[in-house]
Write a structure and sequence with these properties.
Elements: H1 3-17, E1 20-22, H2 24-31, E2 38-43, H3 52-66, E3 70-75, H4 79-82, H5 97-111, E4 120-124, H6 126-129, H7 134-141, H8 146-149, H9 153-160, H10 167-183, E5 187-191, H11 195-207, E6 214-218, H12 243-251, H13 258-265, H14 270-278, H15 281-297, H16 299-314, E7 324-325, E8 335-336, H17 337-343, H18 350-358, E9 362-364, E10 367-368, E11 375-376, E12 383-387, E13 391-395
Parallel strand pairs: 2-3, 2-5, 3-4, 5-6, 7-13
Antiparallel strand pairs: 1-6, 8-11, 9-10, 9-12, 12-13
Helix pairs in contact: 1-3, 10-11, 12-15, 12-16, 13-15, 15-16, 17-18
């Protein structure tokens, strides 16, 4: 790895997406030694799927990986059972090891959509935490005071609101920090909400007479409705969604968020981004949507998604190849509309189906229907069902 190229390109890679960088002088000094840095990133398998918000640190990691640095992916199978209290205003339910294991399988496979897993050092933090006895846990807890722990804004808010805080939640920052000691991290990446935890790792490394890690935070990506991106809010774009879904969802963003999405989710130069954003907003958004879809679903699928979207929304035509689907059963007195949507795969759950119906996003034969409990009789010929702007199916009774 060429030292001059490595320093310049690596510093640019760290700075392009980062919010906090602690400390830049230390980072440059490490880079100037010419050796690959050990860059740590932790992922707790607390849910089964990743979304594009999760991809932001992964994209930075891939860029650094391609520059020759070592990516250390911590799969937090131990910390996931504690639950990160960050951003939580209620006591977080703890996961079982079985739930964690199920989620872990999809996490690593979805991370591979961005990272080169053959060049990634993957570590489970159960390696060291399962080996700790109670005395070792007590020694770990002695490394930080309660006063320092409750400096966290999350805990301060919950104390002010008289909301409960579990003692086990105090362990989470210590556990995440101890991961940095175990893997001898030079740098740790995390969202802006993780800065406290990253600094704990720096503190614990100093206690262990190790060089303290550089802490790099990245922006949190808001979802399609402006709130923090979350599967539970229904405002997320999953990494494994189809190109058509990704393209259509990006096209639904408000114009004012395009600059940050361009910066965080594309590799386009600053000049190219500025030129697109200075032009027509629809063209800028279409290029953004195609870039994001291409990254996660491939260039051919992304181009096909753009063509289909233009056909439907710009040219006013129905999509090609609308699937034909049937529910497993159709009672004589009809099927509740929300059940119908779930049964034919136009909604992932009953809750999602009820929500989109009540929001006025469902049409049957071109006519809006807003009552989730409305019973729909079995059609005598294929019935065109539309959910939102992008999901269609011809529903039959057989």
């Amino acid at each position: 790895m060429s030292q001059s190229i490595s320093v310049e390109a690596s510093v640019h890679a760290f700075e392009r997406r980062s919010v906090d960088l602690i400390e830049p002088k230390q980072l440059k000094a490490m880079l100037e030694k010419g050796r690959p840095l050990r860059i740590k990133f932790g992922m707790d398998p607390s849910s089964p799927d990743l979304h594009v918000g999760h991809a932001i640190p992964l994209l930075m990691l891939r860029e650094l990986q391609d520059l020759g640095h070592t990516i250390v992916l911590i799969v937090g199978d131990a910390t996931a059972m504690v639950g990160d209290p960050t951003g939580r205003n209620k006591l977080r339910p703890q996961l079982t090891r079985e739930e964690v294991e199920r989620n872990l399988n999809t996490y690593t496979s979805q991370a591979a959509l961005v990272l080169d897993m053959e060049r990634t050092e993957v570590r489970r933090n159960s390696e060291w935490f399962d080996a700790m006895d109670f005395q070792a846990v007590l020694r770990l807890t002695s490394r930080m005071t309660v006063a320092r722990m409750i400096e966290r804004d999350t805990f301060q808010t919950r104390i002010h609101n008289e909301e409960p805080i579990g003692i086990h939640e105090f362990l989470y920052p210590l556990m995440q920090g101890w991961d940095s000691v175990e893997v001898k991290a030079d740098v740790e990446l995390g969202g802006t909400d993780q800065l406290f935890n990253l600094l704990v790792g720096r503190h614990l490394q100093e206690q262990e007479k190790l060089r303290p890690q550089v802490c790099v935070t990245l922006p949190l990506l808001n979802g399609l409705d402006g709130r923090k991106m979350s599967k539970s809010y229904g405002n997320a774009i999953g990494l494994t969604e189809s190109a058509a879904e990704i393209f259509g969802k990006v096209m639904s963003l408000s114009d004012d968020v395009m600059p940050i999405w361009y910066r965080l989710l594309t590799d386009l130069s600053d000049a190219k981004q500025s030129a697109l954003l200075a032009g027509h907003p629809r063209e800028a958004k279409a290029q953004l949507a195609q870039s994001v879809a291409e990254r996660f679903a491939g260039s051919d699928a992304a181009q096909a998604a753009r063509s289909a979207f233009d056909r439907q929304f710009r040219d006013g035509k129905l999509p090609q190849d609308i699937p034909e689907r049937s529910p497993s059963d159709w009672p004589a007195d009809g099927l509740p509309l929300f059940v119908l949507l779930r049964e034919v795969g136009l909604a992932s759950s009953s809750n999602e189906a009820r929500r989109v119906i009540q929001q006025g996003g469902v049409r049957l034969g071109g006519e809006p229907h807003s009552d989730p409990a409305e019973r729909i009789a079995a059609p005598t010929e294929p019935l065109l069902v539309q959910v939102g702007k992008r999901r269609f199916a011809y529903v039959t009774s057989k």
